[in-house]
Amino acid sequence: MEYSKEFKAALSAFSSIEKDRLIFRLLKKDKLLSKKLYFELIDQETTDDKRDTMEENVREKVLLASKYTGNQKYFLGIVRKISAEITEHVKITTDKFGDVSLNLLLIDKILDYNEDLGRQRFDNVYKLYLYIINKIFKALILTKKLDEDYWMEIDEYLKNIEIKINKNHYLQKLCINNNLDFTWLRSENIPENIDQIVKEIKNQGFLR
Q: In angstroms, rounded to a whole number, what is the distance separating the alpha carbons of residues 106 and 89?
């Protein structure tokens, strides 16, 4: 929505008391904005602190969720909630590195339970595996936009994930079927046009 000069002028004409009332009314309706402003204005924790907390949160919640790997619908629901918490963290802190690292950590921790997942029928784990592959592609796109100084840390996550994928026959096969080139699991090998490649893959009916 674009704001006219008249609208901006009318807002500027509000008294300090009126502006304060309006701000608090808006903040009550937008909890995310409240958290973002709190972080930017008075929170003593840094982005790195928040990311460290989220890393522990991801590890703990995937560990707790692991007992439900036999109920894939419920397990995937928990995974999506953890992912939503990562998204909220990124929106509050604008943590671009965390947007990649935390989601890759989530995938890595899920794949710690390869043995449990391998006991499931492929039909049951298909949605989870496809979810993981989509997240990997998204991480590759975002990695290409990061400063190269971050690539070494990202590569550690990608290396661990590749090892675990290769230990999971069905996931490995599904990755190949959805055109995930394993050589891309090195930051320097990610194509410059990875976003266009992913778009074309989806246009061909994959990743769905």
A: 14
- Collapsed DSSP state (helix, strand, coil) of residue 120: coil
Confidence of residue 1 (pLDDT cuts 50, 70, 90): low
Residue reference for tokens 């490995």 = 172
Residue 125, C-beta contacts closer than 8 angstroms, at least 6 positions apart:
72, 117, 170
Q: Where are the alpha helices (DSSP H) in 46-111?
A: 47-65, 72-93, 96-110
Q: Is-contact 53 93, C-beta < 8 A?
A: no
CA of 144: how far to CAs of 12, 97, 100, 108, 207, in Å?
41, 11, 10, 20, 20
Note if the pTM is more than 0.90.
Answer: yes
Q: Strand, helix or coil at 111?
A: helix
CB of 114 within 8 A of CB of 55?
A: no
